[in-house]
Amino acid sequence: MSVRVQREDFDLGVELTTLRSGRHEIGALVSFTGLVRELADGAPISGMELEHYPGMTERALRQIEIDAAARWPLQASLIIHRYGPLAPGDQIMMVATASAHRQVAFEAAEFLMDYLKSRAPFWKKEQTGSGGHWVDARTTDEAALQRWAASPASKK
Amino acid sequence: MSVRVQREDFDLGVELTTLRSGRHEIGALVSFTGLVRELADGAPISGMELEHYPGMTERALRQIEIDAAARWPLQASLIIHRYGPLAPGDQIMMVATASAHRQVAFEAAEFLMDYLKSRAPFWKKEQTGSGGHWVDARTTDEAALQRWAASPASKK
Amino acid sequence: MKIDIFYFAWLRERVGLASEQVETEAVTAADLVEELRARDDDHAAAFEDMKSIRVALDQELCDFSAPLKGVREVAFFPPMTGG
Amino acid sequence: MKIDIFYFAWLRERVGLASEQVETEAVTAADLVEELRARDDDHAAAFEDMKSIRVALDQELCDFSAPLKGVREVAFFPPMTGG
Question: What is the DSSP string of A49-118?
Answer without folding.
Answer: EEEE-TTHHHHHHHHHHHHHHHHS-EEEEEEEEE-EEE-TT-EEEEEEEEESSHHHHHHHHHHHHHHHHH
